[in-house]
Amino acid sequence: xxxxxxxxxxxxxxxxxxxxxxxxxxxxxxxxxxxxxxxxxxxxxxxxxxxxxxxxxxxxxxxxxxxxxxxxxxxxxxxxxxxxxxxxxxxxxxxxxxxxxxxxxxxxxxxxxxxxxxxxxxxxxxxxxxxxxxxxxxxxxxxxxxxxxxxxxxxxxxxxxxxxxxxxxxxxxxxxxxxxxxxxxxxxxxxxxxxxxxxxxxxxxxxxxxxxxxxxxxxxxxxxxxxxxxxxxxxxxxxxxxxxxxxxxxxxxxxxxxxxxxxxxxxxxxxxxxxxxxxxxxxxxxxxxxxxxxxxxxxxxxxxxxxxxxxxxxxxxxxxxxxxxxxxxxxxxxxxxxxxxxxxxxxxx
Length: 349
Hints:
Blueprint: H1 7-17, H2 22-41, H3 44-53, H4 57-69, H5 72-99, H6 107-110, H7 117-134, H8 142-150, H9 153-165, H10 168-197, H11 209-251, E1 256-263, E2 268-274, H12 280-289, E3 299-305, H13 313-348
Parallel strand pairs: 2-3
Antiparallel strand pairs: 1-2
Helix pairs in contact: 2-3, 2-5, 2-9, 3-8, 4-5, 4-10, 5-9, 7-8, 7-10, 7-11, 9-10, 10-11
């Protein structure tokens, strides 16, 4: 079977697909379980596998299509299926994280708690691709690709983690990301469907054009503003981290930095360095150079360790603790390099 579905054919297909069936619910539960394990074990490959088998995309596409042609039956079916799937997903993921012995916040979990404007752009681009792919009669990899790119499964599972552990930041941050993905995939489907429909007897969109525009624009603004603020904050944080890294690496090249702590609350960088004493003139020069690294607003505090025999007992204890941390860090880096070499050799074999 080749070609594309007509608007009428595609509507009938969605009518048939959008039902709460036992088999679809079991598939969803399996996908949620797999995604939760992937997030818990910090495994990207496992998470991607869960996204490929998830049925969460269908009701979102159906909702966008239903709004585009203003089909109340399709809108109602889509919302019913979507709410059921979200509820099942939250319950299954919360149950998993409640019984799991691993409760630490993995990087995969943390990544789903602070949505940015880039998540909005990904959802829009994915939604547009999904409109085209879902209308094709022949099998294609567009819709599975959209499911991976927009990542509907990980945020809903992360919300389940927040629910199970009483972590409000994880719960609402992940739900916000899930809402962004749902809304902007839906909006892309509305626009894409209207473009693909051209002249169709199914549309009564003109009568509600103004109301729908006001509602959609309001929703877009409410979702985009926090994501934009988060993106600006993230960009500034990354720029500051890179600036600090270059600053410490170049300006303290002749010293050994055994401890480096950035205190975001006070915007303060505390360095503990070993080596020749740094004079007041040199310190002033170092402070002046901060501007060239874009960290002129960061308060710099330097703890110098140049003669351990003159340290009091507390400073001596702190000194040796920092030395031990420094040694552990270097050993860890060396082990990581060895593991990487072994993996490369194994790949060659």
